[in-house]
Write a structure and sequence with these properties.
Distance between the termini: 33 Å
Order of helices and strands: EHHEHHEHHEHEH
CATH topology: Rossmann fold
Helix content: 40-55%
CATH class: Alpha Beta
Structural class: alpha/beta
Strand content: 5-15%
Shape: globular
Number of domains: 1
Strand order of the largest sheet: 2-1-3-4-5
Largest sheet: 5 strands, parallel
Length: 198
């Protein structure tokens, strides 16, 4: 079988907590149709996970993930750290550990760090719109860690109607993310162009 693996890590936003499929599965479907090959998608995302939760969840599965030979690894994490009031310093420590583990799993260091989406004005409790200051702060941390490790970052371009509750993606939002992520991968492969890469 002609296939590649997309390995995606995250929390409820990646999991697809407010939709049937998450954006990784939808991305794999788009890539399969465009590239005429199967995409093995692993969506290792858990609702409520903080960065350190994700780091610790990878340890017992390290060999299993590595044996899937992921062509590309994506990670979007940090929203629950913000909700829980995690300090920037602790977020950086946990995210550094996450990058170490992802580099152990990756083929050719093909890791994409996805920036945390901003909350909309329609955000539900326990989140609030003012938390966007922390989103910007954490995204700056991600940008700095990416530069220090020669990794790429990517920021999705979402509209307010891509969200179910100002935080989680709805069906449209998952499709929006999938199209943009697939566009980036297709650009990498020289098939199509994409926007949003930094």
């Amino acid at each position: 079988m002609n296939w590649e693996t997309l390995l995606s890590f995250g929390d409820s936003i990646t999991f697809g907590a407010r939709s049937y499929l998450g954006y990784p599965e939808l991305c794999g479907d788009i890539l399969g149709k465009k590239l005429e090959k199967s995409w093995h998608v692993i969506n290792h995302a858990v609702n409520g996970y903080t960065t350190i939760d994700l780091v610790r969840s990878i340890d017992p599965n390290l060999d299993n993930f590595r044996n899937c030979y992921p062509s590309i690894i994506t990670v979007m994490i940090g929203t629950n750290d913000i909700k829980n009031g995690v300090s920037t310093e602790n977020f950086m420590i946990a995210y550094r550990q996450l990058i170490v583990k992802l580099r152990l799993l990756s083929v050719g260091n093909n890791i994409l760090l996805l920036k945390i989406p901003r909350f909309t004005r329609q955000v539900f409790y326990p989140y609030n719109y003012a938390m966007n200051d922390r989103v910007s702060e954490f995204n700056q941390c991600i940008k700095e860690l990416a530069a220090a490790n020669s990794l790429r970052t990517f920021e999705f371009g979402f509209e307010d109607d891509d969200f179910f509750d100002g935080v989680h993606l709805n069906e449209k939002g998952c499709q929006t993310a999938a199209i943009q992520l697939a566009g980036l991968i297709l650009k990498d492969k020289g098939v199509e162009s994409s926007a949003g890469l930094s």
